[in-house]
Design a protein that fits this description.
This protein is of the alpha/beta class. 53% of the residues lie in helices and 14% in strands. It contains 13 helices and seven strands. The protein has a seven-stranded mixed β-sheet with strand order 1-6-2-5-4-3-7, with helices on both faces.
């Protein structure tokens, strides 16, 4: 139950995760690793490195994405026909639905023994907020885990591919010039560019609470959820944006564009995907 903070080198922390998995594979024992991250860019980099190394060692990597229909992680991992040969990458615990969006956390707490019985090897990818919720709603599983490794690094601006967005056109929809409003919007957009989704949404929501008439903020939040493939969340936000009484052509055009994007995207189902 070792805690590994983010002070080691990036490579050292990746090796710690891989070595822990390798020991579990070698000795045919469970290996439950919590990886706490801040940026989606960093998560993707770590995932790619680990998947490549595991593949070279003959392991199958299977991704498991949580949603309100797939939230009992221990049960579903144990039932997977390849659970003895696979390493599972589990993500999206906050999307499990239920009261306080706690279904996935509570299922981990109640059914944690399945992971041990099945000698499950899994990495649980957690945002900082998901880590806090896991400790709150799943204290027994939290005590069960074998290692916690932090990747709270931020990517350098030179190394990241900017996320697609329409910030320029959104800015044309804002009417407030107040300094605090501009700071919140710019901060949110900066976090989004770095892949820090939770922090981006937090700042957008702060701006919306302070300036509820600036309904264009709904559009920017919806765009983030669309980028994440979370269509139900995006749909709820777009409905709120649609309730805003406006005849501004630019706003309606942006709303229509995002609705078209949402309709064109296939719903991202939870559960398993093998890569």
């Amino acid at each position: 139950m070792v805690e590994v903070n983010g002070k080691g080198t990036f490579e050292d922390r990746v090796n710690i995760v891989f070595d822990e998995l390798s020991l579990g594979i070698q000795w045919e024992r469970p290996s439950l690793i919590l990886v706490v991250y801040r940026s989606e860019h960093i998560k993707n980099i770590v995932q790619a490195i680990l998947a490549k190394s595991l593949g070279e060692s003959g392991q199958v990597v299977i991704h498991y994405s949580v949603d309100k229909y797939h939230y009992d992680i221990p049960l579903e991992l144990l039932d997977h026909p390849k659970h003895k040969q696979a390493v599972f990458f589990v993500s999206g615990l906050r999307w499990g639905g239920g009261r306080g969006y706690s279904n996935a956390y509570r299922a981990l707490n109640m059914h944690r023994e399945y992971l041990v019985e099945g000698n499950i090897k899994a990495i649980f990818w957690l945002t900082k907020n998901e880590g806090k919720q896991l400790a709150r709603f799943s204290p027994d599983f939290w005590a069960f885990r074998h290692k916690v490794v932090e990747f709270l690094d931020l990517p350098s601006k030179k190394s990241i591919r900017p996320l697609e967005s329409s910030n320029g056109s959104f800015h044309n929809l804002y009417t407030k010039k107040a300094n605090d409003f501009q700071i919140l919007i710019n901060t949110a957009e900066a976090f989004f560019a770095l892949g820090c989704i939770d922090e981006a949404i937090l700042n957008f929501r702060k701006a919306l609470r302070n300036y509820p008439d600036e309904t264009a903020i709904y559009l920017q939040i919806a765009e983030i959820y669309l980028y994440m493939g979370r269509l139900p969340a995006a749909g709820r936000i777009l409905k709120k944006a649609n309730k805003g009484k406006t005849d501004k052509i630019i706003f309606l055009n942006e709303l229509n564009r995002l609705n078209l994007v949402a309709n064109s995207l296939q719903h991202t189902l939870g559960g398993f995907s093998e890569q």
